[in-house]
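cron nightly-structures :: item 1 of 1
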Amino acid sequence: MTNVQPSIDLDRLRHIIGSLSEGVILVDANQAIIWANEAALRMHGVDDLSGLGKDVDDYRERFQLRYRNKHRLGEGDYPIDRVIAGEAFDEVIVEVIPRDEEEPRWIHQIRSLILTDGDGNPDLLVLVIQDVSLRFEAEQRFEQTFNVNPAPAVIMRLADQRYVKVNQGFLDLTGYQKDEVLGRSLYEIDILKDAENLDAAKDRLREGRTVPQMQADIELPDGGRKLVIVAGQPVELDDEPCMLFSFADLEPRRQAENELRHSEERFVTTFRLAPIAMAITTCDEGTLCDTNDAFHQLTGWSSDEAMGKTMQALNLWKDATFLDTAAEELNERTAFRGKDATVRTQEGGLTECLVSAASISLRRDTCILWVIQDIHQRRHSELELIGAIEAVMKDTNWFSRTVVEKLANLRAPHGAPRPVETSELTRREKEVLSRLCEGGDDTVIAREMGVSRNTLRNHVARVYAKIGVNRRAQAVLWARERGYPLKLPIN
């Protein structure tokens, strides 16, 4: 082919484009590379024009090109081939691999320019090159970070409000598959569903401004919903304005709050219906903030009269130090059970009770739950039983040892403390205790022992003091518990 010189003034052209930051390569109609500026040489890692090759074929030998999807370009696909063929194109992106290397060293964004002569025929073919390696490296780092970030996130293109990227965190959060999200619009997968400030979010999205954090309910592919905090940050992706949405899962918190609410509802129901008096007070002042019907029946105070007042103001306890003692135990152990106390009713009556208390959390506040069990009737019945036992035990000759021991067990429950054992009594004290068990009165016992009644009473008092009783029946029961021998009269 005859070498035809272009009609363009190359000197003037070189002067114009020589200092451009973009790379420029000039090719004539015969496919010869006739000139390149410094930027173009630098973008190919060569020092002079010969490094690019003398023509298009030579250029293909020196540099292997491939698209971003790893597809290698063959003859006729190179941008320099396409411009020779008279094709006009814009923003073709290729990876450039120098000969004898395996991995790309640069990423070029190339556009074509065809200059014609006076007759309209191609006269000079131009490749304009931009080195976009740094940009794509940054985008690659961003994409890698985006994909491995455990925080759920999606990227939406603002032009059409369609999702262009989604990470695994979002897929795990929602249960969507990747292909179910990419390409879908905001109206198909509404990540702002029932947002707290939906109008403001839409306005900012339309303006490409930051969307502040707000709660929203994301619709899930199975028809359910998930409570999240969503926020949007403007970003650029492939030179297009986008919005990066990130999410925080609030569903565990909502479930915990629901469980807490249900638990509190069950507690309130139990509290209201309990047959034992119960009250709730604040920790600091001891102010009554809730009571049940059994409490009002026990104390005589109505709900309106008791609410907002302290137990101390109601003069609820006979012992003025009871609340102080209870507070000390609650500080040490957060709870106590079965403490004896006497409750004073509104009318001034006194009721013996067993009191238990514990620190509880109620509606995120720490309170004290009081359980007050009326044992007045039970104590009265116990005293009547003890009185009956004492009356019967005045003459133990009517009972066998087994019956006496059972009565003794009724009087002193299992586990009750025993102040002293029989081995600790003196011989004289044992004799006195033995004669008490025989059932004789003081006059008979004093005569049989050869002592005065006053002396006998002193002996009896010492026995009572040692074994921890204050009545004869109690002394007899104490002796029976320990298998003390009982001398019965011979009929």
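cron nightly-structures :: done
The radius of gyration is 50 Å.
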